[in-house]
Amino acid sequence: GRQHVETARSLSQLSLIKFHKNDDRKEVEKLMTEARETIGKKLGTDNPTYADILKNLAVLYISQKRYPEAF
């Protein structure tokens, strides 16, 4: 289901593909945010996968000049 760790990892990977294809940034952000929330709940915020998703969100925000959210 949507709350499974592997589903969250897949959503994160899909969001990166969409980001690099210049797809809709709102959709990319939605996918990344959903993945972040699930990974944070299931694996904890100290998990490397969680940190990787935070990095990807920061890259997205920087690309949109949303610096306060990125840092």
SSE blueprint and pairings:
Elements lengths: L4 H16 L4 H19 L4 H16 L3 H4 L1
Helix pairs in contact: 1-2, 1-3, 2-3
What fraction of the residues are assigned to beta strands by DSSP?
under 5%
Using the CA coordinates, give the radius of gyration: 11 Å
Gap from first CA to last CA: 31 Å
Largest sheet: none
Low-confidence parts, pLDDT < 50 over ≥5 residues? none
| Total number of strands | 0
Query: Helix count, per DSSP?
Result: 4
Oligomeric status: single chain
Q: Which percent range fits the helix content? A: over 70%
- Helix-strand topology string: HHHH
Describe this structure in words.
The longest helix has 19 residues. By secondary structure, the chain is mostly helical. The protein has four helices and no strands. Helix content is 77%, strand content 0%. Helix 2 runs antiparallel to helix 3.
Key attributes of the depicted protein:
71 residues; mainly alpha
In short:
The protein is mostly helical and 71 residues long. It has helices at 5-20, 25-43, 48-63, 67-70.
